Automatic annotation (TrEMBL):
GO terms for molecular function: ATP binding. Residues 56-78 are annotated as: Disordered. This is Spastin/Vps4 C-terminal domain-containing protein. Keywords: ATP-binding, Nucleotide-binding. Residues 62-78 have a biased composition (Low complexity). It comes from Brachypodium distachyon. Gene3D superfamilies: 6.10.20.150. Residues 11-41 form the Spastin/Vps4 C-terminal domain.
Length: 78
């Protein structure tokens, strides 16, 4: 590593990264990529669960804070 007179280490630049990538090799198999994609899809689907969570209405200030939710629910019932 290059060190200047102040004792600080030179910063890593894009050219350094590009040089190192010339010698990089793939370390993940096609099988592992397939497993990851299946896992990612399952995770994404499970994230949909619980997105409609709401606390039960307990006090009037909470009801006043969300009039649009109550109004849209009433409109859906019509």
């Amino acid at each position: 590593m290059e060190v200047d007179d102040s004792g600080e280490v030179a910063e890593i630049k894009a050219a350094h990264f590009e040089e190192s990538m010339k010698y990089a090799r793939r370390s993940v198999s096609d099988r592992d990529i397939t497993k990851y994609r299946a896992f990612a899809q399952t995770l994404q689907q499970s994230r949909g669960f619980g997105t409609e969570f709401r606390f039960p209405e307990q006090s009037k200030p909470a009801e006043a804070a969300a009039p649009t939710a109550n109004a849209s629910a009433a409109a859906d019932e019509r």
